Amino acid sequence: MTQPEILYQDESLLAVNKPAGLLVHGDSPNLAEWLVKKFPEVKNVGDLPAGRQGTQERPGIVHRLDKDTSGVLIVARNQKTFEYLKNLFQTHQIKKTYLALVWGRVTPKSGLIEKPLGLKSGTTKRTVHVQNAKMVKEAKTLYRVKTYFENYTLLEVEPMTGRTHQIRVHLASIGHPIVGDNLYGKKPAPAGLSRMFLHAESLELTLPTGSRLRISADLPPELNLEQFGPADSR
Description:
Structural class: mainly beta
Oligomer: single chain
Largest sheet: 9 strands, mixed
CATH superfamily of the largest domain: Pseudouridine synthase
Low-confidence stretches: none
Order of helices and strands: EEHEHEEEEEEEHEE
CATH topology of the largest domain: Pseudouridine synthase
Mean pLDDT: 93
């Protein structure tokens, strides 16, 4: 498995490029284990109850990416920075941009998907059909068309909220599921694509020092757009 790559680091935080196939935490191997080994100071950083000591399940990790999603993930190196970043995420002050290749031709070329998400009863799937769903929360996702291909559209996607599977469910709900998404899509992945085509391209935030930082990660080699043919100029 490809190892995480350090994209940025200073005394208070770091950013890594998480490869697809690696869990953020949970079953081994995972990103949390890698972080503690590389940066031992993060092991007690997080939402531990007051007075409790011990290695965190999610050491320094303020947000997460799905196992099959690659890209930028930010980590706090001390508790003060963790609380600072947590507040930025909760108040939607961090701009997150993803690249997603979806089935079909998306029109209009930009839009806002504003549909509440809930947990489908008896499953781990999220749904926009929330009448009988649990844990229903508001969800907003901006999208912009970057490139049309003959049978696909490459989108730049900006989630305005941070719900589980939000981008995947919202894009599927408008009839354009992400290529390779076996949970929310109905078509098998095309030959040559070994994973879901969703990548966390960048994060933009204000550092505790007041300066603005944008961290980005290129598409990994397995998400090669050339295999989907030339761009459609229509």
